[in-house]
Amino acid sequence: MGIIGSIVLHTVLRIRDLPWLGSRSLQPLVCVCLLEGTGATPSEEMNGTGNLMDFLDEPFPDVSTYEDFHTIDWLREKSRDTDRHRKITTKSKESYWELIKSLLDAWSGWVVMLLIGMLTGTLAGVIDLAVDWMTDLKEGVCLSAFYYSHEQCCWTSNETTFDDRDKCPQWQKWAELMTGHSEGAGAYVLNYFLYVLWALLFSFLAVSLVRVFAPYACGSGIPEIKTILSGFIIRGYLGKWTLLIKTVTLVLAVSSGLSLGKEGPLVHVACCCGNLFCSLFSKYSKNEGKRREVLSAAAAAGVSVAFGAPIGGVLFSLEEVSYYFPLKTLWRSFFAALVAAFTLRAINPFGNSRLVLFYVEYHTPWYMAELVPFILLGVFGGLWGTLFIRGNIAWCRRRKTTLLGKYPVLEVIVITGITAVLAFPNPYTRRSTSELISELFNDCGALESSQLCDYVNNPNMSRPVDDIPDRPAGPGVYSALWQLALALIFKIVITIFTFGMKIPSGLFIPSMAVGAIAGRIVGIAVEQMAYHHHDWIIFKNWCRPGADCVTPGLYAMVGAAACLGGVTRMTVSLVVIMFELTGGLEYIVPLMAAAVTSKWVADAFGKEGIYESHIQLNGYPYLDVRDEFTHRTLATDVMRPRRSEPPLAVLTQDSTTVEDVETLIKDTDYNGFPVVVSRESERLIGFVQRRELTVAIKTARQKQDGVVSSSVVYFTEDNPQVAEACDPQPLKLRRILNLSPFTVTDHTPMETVVDIFRKLGLRQCLVTRSGRLLGIITKKDVLRHMAQMMNQDPESIMFN
């Protein structure tokens, strides 16, 4: 940027500090800024030989806008965007070219949403197709085309029969391919061994890629996304390498058969896409607040493709992950979710012309009496959520504090081996979790061949296919119930140890699987009770003999919603996701009843969901808006410094040298420093950011003549006077001084201070009494105090 552009930017910054000046006062101010504190003539400035430099638009390579593991200043980012928008609006009136540029700037947000939706939908489709193929690869291979999954392989076969629809000559299991025998103990053992071997290979590749190339690609990603959207900086977490490795290892991790899902990590993948496209537009790349608006919309797109639920994705972003969600972001989130859903639909990864694998159509309405088992499923979901959160957090804490955490590859291999060995004998745990949920959700029609639909049929029945009455359960159903009971115990236990390992791991699908299994068992039990005891008073009024009264698949759907709600504490977005996921719009009331009940039960044991618990475990500085602060403490009880601590590090307005400032920056790691009149009076003048102070001094040393270590730094309004010719050139930094830092008095209740930090997104707040500086409260201090008030370790807040 030329010197004239620098002068204009300085003028704009000065105008922001002088609110009584209007836009008409711009020209006189230019002349003032040309000469202010520099000793240069206008001709020197025009030739670029003056001392006034723009240090804000020319950051040094080693100094970024915000340092890693620090919190952004929401007010500052909002102010910068307002200034940028005002400047664009003013310039758009000067020429048609500037008008076109302003229109392009206005549309850039929608372009970013379009790109995010298209890339997210494409990646989700590729992941779905790859997972389908690699999951089936553990059991066999398609001879006609090795890249076909089992289902795709048999689509192309003309020799598939209705009774053996899953068998075709083109698809062979590994034992049949190697030995020529598909039955017998030897074939079973060989298939068993290769199933475990493939699972170990997939998980080993996943954890190795994560460990070597992208350590941030592990886990669900939602706790970190919530923290980033609240204003925290985690550099590299949404980078290109993380996007690539997370996409590849997500396929490997899900295909290995571990009790995890791809839905949570897809939110992380979508946010990586959002961060990638933000770098293409300066509007978002140079403003962390605007970037987070894009990431909120990207999270909605991630849930949209994960569940095929665009509306549910928007509500999930609003309810669960976003910290700042203005109306404009709501519209753009909806657009991004819509584009992502359209893209996924065009790819059609499931081959059923639908966005989801779980689409169901029930032909029986639900009855009021069924609310009792629905609510009981809600209670089960709340208890399961509590058990899972406490067990998983205890295991993750043990992983952090013991030798277990030093061997992540070994842990993944051991858990995968145990999972594969125990899962193979049970057909309901051997198959992928998504296929299991799909089967549990399905209604038993006349064309179903599942064990769960092995009912005793009446040979004299002549009813439409869609109106099959309740029937007594056959031996296949009872066998399936035992297998489902074992699968339920297995899923409950193994999921606790799986979530949080150093591989991509989502929680939505395993939680839904636990609830779907429990719900299907309850549904079959209620169905058989209604059939054998239709004269009981609870069935008499709504279930006639020979009628189709109970739909076990509906109970599985309600149970899935209850367990997912118990773990995540979602309510509104959960219900919308479930009815979009299944197409069961008629069953909103049972879903609502189960979701609310599970939340109430789980909240009775602890307010934090699994993501909030992991945020606390990792010590991220996240102020949850749902937490209530009811303690009677004051700002003076929390502010630093305490009585036993050294005095507050401050700068004076006209008596601090460059060497003093550089020493202070070197010896401390504070984000900024208060500026006072003098150390004796401690009257507050303003606040200066560490980054801007560092860049300003480095730039002045290199480009401004006469600035040395003994130069005095001035933050005053008046121009500094050089007493003698031999005195060093003073350095005036008034322009980087925030003259209106947020302050509270020492007697402000902490309840108010906490609310201010939440709603304004502050990094720090100065504490004064009658204009005299007493101390400072940072976001970290607030979090430490809240932890201390809840009898937790205040030092668990590890980051600044």
Automatic annotation (TrEMBL):
<dbReference type="GO" id="GO:0015297">
    <property type="term" value="F:antiporter activity"/>
</dbReference>
<feature type="transmembrane region" description="Helical">
    <location>
        <begin position="294"/>
        <end position="318"/>
    </location>
</feature>
<keyword id="KW-1133">Transmembrane helix</keyword>
<keyword id="KW-0050">Antiport</keyword>
<feature type="domain" description="CBS">
    <location>
        <begin position="639"/>
        <end position="703"/>
    </location>
</feature>
<dbReference type="GO" id="GO:0005769">
    <property type="term" value="C:early endosome"/>
</dbReference>
<keyword id="KW-0812">Transmembrane</keyword>
<keyword id="KW-0813">Transport</keyword>
<keyword id="KW-0677">Repeat</keyword>
<keyword id="KW-0067">ATP-binding</keyword>
<feature type="transmembrane region" description="Helical">
    <location>
        <begin position="330"/>
        <end position="347"/>
    </location>
</feature>
<dbReference type="InterPro" id="IPR002246">
    <property type="entry name" value="Cl_channel-4"/>
</dbReference>
<dbReference type="GO" id="GO:0005524">
    <property type="term" value="F:ATP binding"/>
</dbReference>
<comment type="similarity">
    <text>Belongs to the chloride channel (TC 2.A.49) family.</text>
</comment>
<feature type="transmembrane region" description="Helical">
    <location>
        <begin position="507"/>
        <end position="526"/>
    </location>
</feature>
<feature type="transmembrane region" description="Helical">
    <location>
        <begin position="107"/>
        <end position="131"/>
    </location>
</feature>
<dbReference type="GO" id="GO:0005247">
    <property type="term" value="F:voltage-gated chloride channel activity"/>
</dbReference>
<dbReference type="InterPro" id="IPR001807">
    <property type="entry name" value="ClC"/>
</dbReference>
<feature type="transmembrane region" description="Helical">
    <location>
        <begin position="367"/>
        <end position="389"/>
    </location>
</feature>
<protein>
    <recommendedName>
        <fullName>Chloride channel protein</fullName>
    </recommendedName>
</protein>
<feature type="transmembrane region" description="Helical">
    <location>
        <begin position="480"/>
        <end position="500"/>
    </location>
</feature>
<dbReference type="GO" id="GO:0010008">
    <property type="term" value="C:endosome membrane"/>
</dbReference>
<feature type="domain" description="CBS">
    <location>
        <begin position="737"/>
        <end position="795"/>
    </location>
</feature>
<keyword id="KW-0547">Nucleotide-binding</keyword>
<feature type="transmembrane region" description="Helical">
    <location>
        <begin position="554"/>
        <end position="579"/>
    </location>
</feature>
<feature type="transmembrane region" description="Helical">
    <location>
        <begin position="234"/>
        <end position="254"/>
    </location>
</feature>
<keyword id="KW-0967">Endosome</keyword>
<dbReference type="Pfam" id="PF00571">
    <property type="entry name" value="CBS"/>
</dbReference>
<dbReference type="Pfam" id="PF00654">
    <property type="entry name" value="Voltage_CLC"/>
</dbReference>
<keyword id="KW-0129">CBS domain</keyword>
<keyword id="KW-0868">Chloride</keyword>
<keyword id="KW-0472">Membrane</keyword>
<dbReference type="GO" id="GO:0008021">
    <property type="term" value="C:synaptic vesicle"/>
</dbReference>
<dbReference type="GO" id="GO:0005886">
    <property type="term" value="C:plasma membrane"/>
</dbReference>
<dbReference type="GO" id="GO:0005794">
    <property type="term" value="C:Golgi apparatus"/>
</dbReference>
<dbReference type="InterPro" id="IPR046342">
    <property type="entry name" value="CBS_dom_sf"/>
</dbReference>
<dbReference type="InterPro" id="IPR000644">
    <property type="entry name" value="CBS_dom"/>
</dbReference>
<keyword id="KW-0406">Ion transport</keyword>
<feature type="transmembrane region" description="Helical">
    <location>
        <begin position="192"/>
        <end position="214"/>
    </location>
</feature>
<feature type="transmembrane region" description="Helical">
    <location>
        <begin position="409"/>
        <end position="428"/>
    </location>
</feature>
<dbReference type="InterPro" id="IPR014743">
    <property type="entry name" value="Cl-channel_core"/>
</dbReference>
